[in-house]
Design a protein that fits this description.
Elements: E1 5-10, H1 16-25, E2 29-34, H2 39-46, E3 51-56, E4 81-84, H3 86-94, E5 98-100, E6 106-114, E7 127-128, E8 134-142, E9 145-148, E10 154-158, E11 166-169, E12 174-177, H4 189-200, H5 209-224, E13 228-233, H6 237-250, E14 254-260, H7 268-279, E15 283-288, H8 290-297, H9 303-326, E16 335-339, H10 344-350, H11 370-374, E17 377-379, H12 387-396, H13 401-404, H14 424-443, E18 445-446, E19 451-452, H15 453-456, E20 459-473, E21 476-489, E22 497-498, H16 503-516, E23 520-525
Parallel strand pairs: 1-2, 1-3, 3-4, 4-12, 13-14, 13-16, 14-15, 16-17, 21-23
Antiparallel strand pairs: 5-9, 6-8, 6-10, 7-8, 10-11, 11-12, 18-19, 20-21, 21-22
Helix pairs in contact: 5-6, 5-12, 6-12, 8-9, 14-16
The structure holds xanthosine-5'-monophosphate (XMP).
């Protein structure tokens, strides 16, 4: 890989990944590493001559609570450094300035006055005051602040409550901002970060997914040689894009294993087969394990127990298939590699700084430990990419837009969307009701944005409630099941709002489900936000 690169040192802020995403959106390659890497590590990282700049992230902590510092080498490499929030404070402290704690936190919107005509903020402003001062609308979140500039620095930005809201040493190209340019609330944040990486660091914007394919293909071929690879295909975005990419690289040396646990959405299995076996001509083994899964789930109603059973069976079935493919047989030399759709956020979270507590939701598809058990080497061709980039890559590889921009679907599938005991009849009813909901979301366009309600929601689905209610249809009384519709909007799935879908849309969905799915006579809409509710019902 010949790309210029930016190093982001993570001091544990909730929004560090956003710094990386903004820089990647400027088509510049960057990597996030924990702040407690050593100076030797930093020098090693820079040894190939491609490191063009360093960003020090914010932190959830105060400089007085933790003694996290940037490794000294960061200031000695001769490359530009940008400190954000805590990153600016630690820079100030390490270079001879002063930081003071404060009892009051400044949190939220602020207007910052640009000062000193620095290269970083030149001509970047949201408005100009009558006195001619350039002003920035920013987002702040800090208690401590820099109270004395380090030698060599000048003032770059200020607010009435934070007189040193930005500082610059233009000879060394060291900059600090107390506000957060990586969040979208900071209107010029993107312009500021682009200015830093493209102009001040002088990187070339050559990180483009379309071009990445050739590079990734070459890397896979180099890694794998003429050996064979197996991959667990779930139909989700990550495993699908990984499969398409690896197939592009090594064709028939890849075998995909698709385990159908009987808890997939309507026609999902057939669609996955049609796409990968039909259109891409990839080798796909479809394992119909629905009887096994539904059999083991019979009589079990506890959500966690259901998850455990599904997870265990999934690994068992996958292992059994993999074992067939790893032993040399008539059709295969025996696979030596297990491919996984691990993406960059998983990598960052598992390698986080010791001070950071990452909250991760694990999926049973993330079959940890399997490569060792099966004696396989691990192939992870997406481990440098963010989700947005994985999607772009998927489209560039020719996967259908609808597949690549699909809402997330939990590993245990409909198993956690049928409350209590899972039965095949329930799953069949739920599949049909859910397909109607999704179809209507896709076909209903919101006029202001011109987008469909599917694209305007982050996740939407139907939940099967194993209770019966009375209804009337024609001349007869019905006594049938109830479903709940759930649609949420969220940026990180940690918190979520229920979506304010138009009544007309809800009415159409409810009418169609009740008329078309015999066995369901009542439809409700879930108006609970997360927290305190979760997105899934189980
Ligand atoms: P909750 O329900 O916790 O869901 O608000 C947050 C996100 O995680 C997904 N989810 C799962 N994904 N295995 C998965 O692979 C699971 O067991 C699981 N449980 C929840 C959920 O769909 C949502 O996107």
């Amino acid at each position: 890989m010949q790309h210029d690169k930016i190093l982001i040192l993570d001091f544990g802020s909730q929004v560090t990944q956003l710094i990386a995403r903004r820089i990647r959106e400027a088509h510049v390659y960057c990597e996030v590493h924990p702040c407690d890497v050593s100076s030797d590590w930093v020098r090693g990282f820079a040894a190939d001559g491609r490191l063009k700049g360093v960003v020090l992230s914010g932190s959830h902590a105060s400089v007085y609570e933790v003694d996290d510092k940037a490794p000294e080498a960061v200031y000695e490499l001769g490359v530009p450094v940008l400190g954000i929030c805590y990153g600016m404070q630690t820079m100030a402290q390490q270079l001879g300035g002063k930081v003071e704690g404060s009892h009051t936190r400044e949190f939220g919107y602020a207007e910052v006055r640009a000062r000193g005509h620095t290269a970083l903020l030149k001509d970047i402003a949201d408005f100009t005051t009558p006195e001619g001062h350039g002003m920035l609308k920013v987002w702040m979140s800090h208690g401590d602040k820099v109270t004395e500039l380090p030698p060599g620095f000048k003032l770059m930005a200020s607010t009435p409550s934070c007189p040193i809201a930005g500082m610059a040493d233009e000879a060394r190209r060291f900059y600090g901002v107390q506000f957060h340019p990586e969040v979208t609330h900071t209107v010029q944040g993107r312009a500021l970060l682009e200015r830093f990486v493209l102009e001040i660091c002088g990187t070339s914007p050559d990180w483009v997914m379309r071009d990445h394919i050739a590079e990734a293909v070459e890397k896979i071929r180099e890694q794998v040689g003429d050996e064979e690879v197996i991959l667990g295909l779930s139909g989700g975005v990550d495993s699908s894009v990984a499969a398409a990419l690896i197939h592009r690289a090594i064709g028939d040396q890849l075998t995909c294993v698709f385990v159908d646990h009987g808890l997939l959405r309507l026609n999902e299995g057939d669609m996955v087969m049609e796409m990968f076996a039909g259109k891409l001509h990839a080798k796909v083994v479809r394992v119909d394990a629905s009887e096994l899964f539904l059999g083991e789930l019979a009589g079990v109603s506890d959500p966690e127990q259901k998850r455990k059973i599904i997870g265990r069976l999934f690994v068992d079935v996958f292992k059994a298939e993999a074992a067939k493919l790893t032993s040399s047989g008539a059709s295969t030399k025996g696979a030596k590699w297990l491919a996984q759709g691990t993406i960059y956020p998983d990598v960052i979270e598992s390698g986080g700084a010791k001070s950071k507590k990452a909250v991760t939701i694990k999926s049973h598809h993330n079959v940890g430990g399997l490569p060792e058990q099966l004696g396989l080497k691990l192939l992870e061709p997406l481990r440098d990419l963010f989700k947005d980039e994985v999607r772009e890559l998927g489209v560039a590889l020719g996967l259908p837009h609808d597949m690549v921009y699909r809402h997330p679907f939990p590993g245990p599938g409909l198993g956690v969307r049928i409350l209590g005991e899972v039965k095949k009849d329930y799953a069949d009813l739920l599949r049909r009701a859910d397909a109607i909901f999704i179809e209507e979301l896709r076909s209903t366009i919101e006029p202001h944005s011109g987008k469909s309600w599917y694209d305007l929601t982050s996740q939407a689905f139907t939940v099967f409630l194993p209770v019966k209610s009375v209804g009337v249809m024609g001349d007869g009384r019905t006594y049938d099941y109830v479903v709940a519709l759930r649609a949420v909007q969220t940026s990180d799935f940690m918190t979520a709002d229920w979506a304010e879908l138009p009544y007309s849309l809800l009415k159409r969905v409810s009418g169609r489900i009740i008329n078309e799915v015999r066995g369901i006579n009542r439809v409700t809409y879930d108006v609970s936000s997360k927290p305190p509710a979760t997105i899934e019902w189980e």
